[in-house]
Specification:
The chain is of the alpha+beta class and 196 residues long. Helices cover 41% and strands 24% of the residues. The strands form two sheets. It has a five-stranded antiparallel sheet, sandwiched between helices. It starts with a helix and ends in a 15-residue tail after the last strand.
Length: 196
Amino acid sequence: YSTWELMQGEIRNVHQSAEQFAQFSSSEQEQVSEGARQVLHVLAQLPEIKGSDNTACSNILANFTVQMPQYLNVAAADLKGNVYCSGLPLNGPLNISDRPEFWRAIETGDFSIGNYAVSPVTGKPQLAFTYPVKNNTGLINGVIALVLDLEWLSKDLAKNILLEGSMISITDNNGIVIAHAPHKGMGVGQPLPRDL
C-alpha cells in the first residue's frame, strides 16, 4: 500500500512539474511577443521612421539591430510593402507585401505576428512582428517589421527547460516548429509531427 501511495505521489509531482513547465513556456512566449510589440510601438513613433530621410531611418535601425542580437533585422516599408529603410544593408529592392502580417498590421491598425519564414536578407529562420506606422494626422502610411531570430529563440528556450529529459516545441499558427529545445531531432521550419 505504501508503494502505491509513493507511486501516486510521484505521478502527482510529474503532473505538477509538467503544468508548471507549460505555464512557464506560455509566459516566455508572451514575454517575447509583448517585448516585440513594445519595441515596435516605440520605433513607430520616431520621426526618422515616419519621415522621408531613409539614411537617418536606416542608421537608427542599424544601431538597434546591433544592440538587440535576438532580432535579425528591423525594417520599415511603405503601404505597398516596399522597404525604405533597414537595420541591415539590402542587396537591392525588397518588398514584403507577400507577408500576411504586413497586411494584418495595416488592416487592423495594430500589432501582428507572422509565421515561420526564411529571411530574404539573412537566409536564417525568422518570425516577423509588424506594427503600423502612422503619420502626424494618424493615418497609416507604412509598417515597421521586427524580425526575431529563431535560432536565438531555441537557445533561449533550452536555457529554461525545467525537467531533465523533457523537450518543448513552439509552433506557429500553421503548425510549423519555430523553436525547439533541446536541439535534437526536431527541426525548426518542419511541421510538428501529429503523433506528439
